[in-house]
């Protein structure tokens, strides 16, 4: 539409393995479906392709993605400029390369390798619920890094290494985010690269007790990477986990606690990473659980250093809400009930009014119904909620918000274990209502926090 600023909307279309259609045919049909589908607004989520014979016969899934990551809730369809990414998922699983233990009986994992986009990584990006616009920033960074390479920007004038460092506490999703980013780039940059590979390296395994073998491993590993990168039509993503091991090994060697060739191995790794700078199709993704232990020589090489911290109350709410939705899908919570998402006016009001547990704590489950605090009643009045059904839905949101607020300090990994713990220890039946599951979830959080306190103090709390 003339004079109207268009908003790029990414549409990812996973094709059937048997699909032989040209990309242009898929793109044209998706555009027709979006602009003529009858919806006035475009949001993140699945696209119904059943009304299109072409798509229904050739497409596994189609979805709009990336709006929420950029802080956008919806886009009017007349502002929408669909960017269609059609791809086929690789059914090949992970392949593991190991280093022989030199007669010691132990093998050391050298790296894991995936062909991208990988079937086992599909949906991982959307499942990661992080604060702010972290995911959008990572996509923008990677896109700009490759653009600068394609435009042949002089690296002598403007420096970028295509090295990312994600650091933060364990369990916050750093490794998963790196894998999901590689998978997402393989989809988004499908028009730029004909193929994509992900290699995951555990830095700790590079500095095993066989330091002479570690040297061989580094050489073999980066030789393999160089072979892959020789094909400029292949995107090669390298994930180095526990990158702080570089510092640990070098420090130990400097203090005389490890063989001197450990220093040579560490320096060899850094030199090999530097050599990848000349490869425009290589992206290095690294993680660290111990920010203060990261080698400064490596930190200086990273273009972006991003903290992936513990989830805030809104992210905790969204994570637990997604878990409840999965339990409803499988019938463990029955009957299914709507739980308001974090975008709802009630949850926004509650978050902005107070996230203090002293305010939220009075909301609890009674005998088959929810007893709401005075604060909850005020919230209902604030958002104009009056119907009985609406009150029940919003009461679920208030109670889940209470659980999320109580779970402060838990990582995303720990949060996703809570629904299982709630069922195992407090539900005691194959299925139950949402009311009772939320009550069990609240007990599970309290128990988890108590047991963590016992671990720290070494005594009952």
Short key terms for the protein model shown above:
single chain; 461 residues; alpha/beta; Vcp-like ATPase, Chain A, domain 2; Rossmann fold; 3 domains; 7-stranded mixed sheet; 4-stranded mixed sheet; 15 strands; globular
Could you characterize what this model shows?
The chain has 461 residues and is an alpha/beta fold. It has three domains: 7-87, Vcp-like ATPase, Chain A, domain 2 (Roll), CATH 3.10.330; 95-307, Rossmann fold, CATH 3.40.50; 313-457, no CATH class. It contains 17 helices and 15 strands. It has helices at 23-36, 53-58, 124-127, 134-150, 174-188, 203-206, 211-229, 245-254, 261-275, 296-299, 313-329, 345-353, 357-360, 374-382, 388-406, 412-427, 434-457; strands at residues 7-15, 41-42, 45-46, 59-65, 75-76, 80-87, 95-99, 108-116, 163-167, 195-202, 234-241, 282-288, 304-307, 364-365, 370-371. The strands form four sheets. The protein has a seven-stranded mixed sheet with strand order 7-8-10-11-12-9-13, sandwiched between helices. Strands 3-4-1-6 form a four-stranded mixed sheet. Strands 2-5 form a two-stranded antiparallel sheet. α4 (134-150) packs across α5 (174-188). Residues 354-386 have low confidence and may be disordered.
